[in-house]
Each structure stands twice: as structure tokens, then as C-alpha cells.
Write a structure and sequence with these properties.
CATH superfamily of one domain: 2,3-Dihydroxybiphenyl 1,2-Dioxygenase, domain 1
CATH topology of one domain: 2,3-Dihydroxybiphenyl 1,2-Dioxygenase, domain 1
Order of helices and strands: EHEEEEHEEEHH
Strand order of the largest sheet: 1-4-3-2
Structural class: alpha/beta
Number of helices: 4
Helix content: 10-25%
Strand content: 15-25%
């Protein structure tokens, strides 16, 4: 498989206007897709050439309770925070200054060894981290395991391990490959 990044992370808001103002106008992410009809809306913001963040607008959704990034939770739980990469520490300071100028709470810059980060919340209380790579550290080129008691699977190394899952023995025949209609009709009409 050839991954290109996160196509989109889909979140929810009850206030698309406020969400656009934060993600597009404050953080500077282009609004590249907007789909909608009565009772349904989904907008996509460009993070990078390969990555976007999307929001469904659901009128009855309420902002989540603010939870500090990385603090353990109990009970059903699926999402802690999203970290958006920036190129340099200077970009990180620019994000911090921009958020503070808008009256948005933002943490101090934190050194995690491999990245430097600041933390904030969007208007929906979604926890956001902004991260810049630490100079001289590239965990993608040289993975690092500092866990003093890693899980057995982690001890096997950074590369995908063959034989863990059953191999594909049946490929979908071309005659059965069908793409079903979704929200794409509106894009077909604009071409």
C-alpha cells in the first residue's frame, strides 16, 4: 500500500461559521471543499498538499468538555488530540503569537525531545497540538524506542511484521469493482 498522509480527519461542529473563522481565518488553512444540503454540511480545510481536516455541521452536537492533552481518561474514549506539524520553531512561535493575539488560550512551548509543541483548543474544544521537529532528530529516519517496558509487538521493531495477519487470497475481480454514489454528484456538476 502506498500511503500519502491523512486524507482527512472528520470532526463535528454545531457552528460551521465559527469553525471556518478559526481554521481558515485564524490558522490560515484554505477551505478547499464545501458540501451541503438542508440538514447536512461538511467542509474540508487544507493542512498540507496531502492532508486535510474536515468538519460535519450537526446542529445538535455540543462542544466536548475540555480535557488536557494526554491526560488519561476513563470509560469509552477514542480521541485525545490532533497534532498539526509545522516546519520550524519559528512557525511554532508564529502560531503561538497568532492564537494569543486572538485571545485563544495557548500553552508555553514544550520540548518533547523529538518535537517542540504548543497546545490549544479550537472553538469546539477540540484539543490541538502544533509540533515542530527538534533540530537534529529525525525519528522517521532513525526510529527511537525509549519505553523501558515495550509491548511484545513493539519489541519486534519498527517495520511491519509479515505473517501477523492472514494473506489476501481473493482479490476483488474487476467485474465486481463498483463505486457507489455518495456526495460526489455536486462535484460532477461543477466540472
Amino acid at each position: 500500500m502506498n500511503y500519502t498522509g491523512i486524507n482527512h480527519l472528520a470532526l463535528a461542529t454545531a457552528d460551521m461559521e465559527q469553525t471556518i473563522r478559526f481554521w481558515r481565518d485564524l490558522l490560515g488553512m484554505r477551505l478547499i471543499i464545501g458540501t451541503g444540503r438542508p440538514g447536512y454540511r461538511q467542509y474540508f480545510f487544507e493542512i498540507s498538499p496531502h492532508d486535510t481536516i474536515a468538519f460535519f455541521e450537526w446542529p445538535d452536537v455540543r462542544p466536548i468538555a475540555e480535557k488536557d492533552h494526554g491526560v488519561p481518561a476513563k470509560g469509552p474514549f477514542a480521541f485525545d488530540h490532533v497534532s498539526l506539524g509545522v516546519e520550524t520553531d519559528e512557525d511554532l512561535w508564529r502560531v503561538k503569537d497568532t492564537l494569543e493575539a486572538a485571545g485563544v488560550w495557548v500553552s508555553e512551548v514544550v520540548d518533547h525531545g523529538f518535537i517542540h509543541s504548543v497546545y490549544a483548543f479550537d472553538p469546539n474544544h477540540i484539543p490541538i497540538e502544533f509540533s515542530a521537529p527538534a533540530a537534529g532528530i529525525d525519528c522517521r529516519k532513525r526510529p527511537v524506542m525509549t519505553d523501558i517496558s515495550p509491548t511484545p509487538a513493539a519489541r519486534e521493531g519498527d517495520a511491519p511484521q509479515p505473517g501477523v495477519w492472514p494473506p489476501v487470497t481473493h482479490r476483488t475481480p474487476n467485474t465486481e469493482k463498483k463505486i457507489y454514489p455518495g456526495e460526489g454528484d455536486s462535484f460532477i456538476k461543477t466540472r
